[in-house]
Amino acid sequence: MTQSTWQIPGRIHAAIIMDGNGRWAQARGLPRTAGHRAGARAFERVVECAPGEGIGVLTVYAFSQDNWKRPGDEVRALFRLMEDFLCREVDRCVANGIALRAIGRRDRLPESVVRVLAAAEERTRGGGKLTLRIAVDYSSRDAIAAAAGVACTQDTFSRRLAAAYGEPDPPPDVDLLIRTAGEQRLSDFLLWEAAYAELCFTPVLWPDFGADDLREAVTEYRRRRRTFGGLTASVSLPGRVA
Ligand code: FPP
User: Cα(55)–Cα(239) distance, rounded to whole angstroms?
Assistant: First the structure.
């Protein structure tokens, strides 16, 4: 696959399905929105330690197309958290070399979210330490369907898919996909890009997820033998440290 603007030699692409905010809140007798607030703090912790774990691209599932089925109050609270994060953290992202991008549909998002997203993408463009992709109003099936049409090579298809959710170049394939809260599903997330991802499922609820959990997942990933359908482990895998 072409990786022209990604510049991540030796670094991995990790993807996270941040699950369990609701259960975290319920266990404490708190409203679901309190779980999402705690989830946003966990998200910030993970972004902070990702580069140190050899992660060059981090894609997180913040709001799926199916999440529109949730009550309006919860949906609004989630968008508010995203907007707050983007407004509050953009300077820190610039200082820390983090390039922010959103993937997914924008035409149904609140206008203010679209505005701060675009501004954050513009301001952080060129951050070379970590590309942080936030999937918002995202559906992998939708993106695949939009990119499909004429028969083409996998490489061309990847380009069309990237274009379908608004990126100039296709990202590297996902190396490691983490899902929290004991669930073991992909839930319409990165179906194409995760074709050879190593899957890591943990019972930890997302708000409790931290640097040690991320390190454990990456360590487990590095222990895995990846043959990509062949018989021998590839020696030039992304993220493999010499
Ligand atoms: C799934 O937990 C989580 C979500 C649908 C939202 C994820 C959002 C965040 C972590 C916070 C905001 C993000 C950013 C980018 C600042 P759930 O609510 O389905 O949990 P449950 O299965 O226990 O009910």
Answer: 8
Q: What is the mean pLDDT of residues 109-118?
A: 97
* pLDDT of amino acid 124: 96
In a domain, 207, yes or no: yes
Is there a catalytic annotation at residue 19?
Answer: yes
Distance of CA 134 to the CA centre of its chain: 5
pTM passes above 0.85:
yes
67 in active site: yes
Cβ(40) to ligand 1 under 6 A? yes
Within-domain flag for 173: yes
CATH number of the domain within which 136 lies? 3.40.1180.10
pLDDT category of residue 241 using cuts at 50, 70 and 90: very low
Give the closest residue (by CA) to ligand 1 atom 12: 40
Side-chain-side CA neighbours of residue 24 (13 Å): 23
pLDDT tens digit sequence for 12-48: 999 999 999 999 999 999 999 999 999 999 999 999 9
How many domains are contained in the chain? 1
Residue 88 in domain? yes
Kindly report the protein residue whose alpha carbon is nearest to atom 22 of ligand 1: 20
Q: Give yes or no for residue 209 CB within 6 A of ligand 1.
A: no
Domain ranges, residue 199: 3-223
Residues linked to residue 57 through DSSP beta bridges, in sequence order? 13, 131
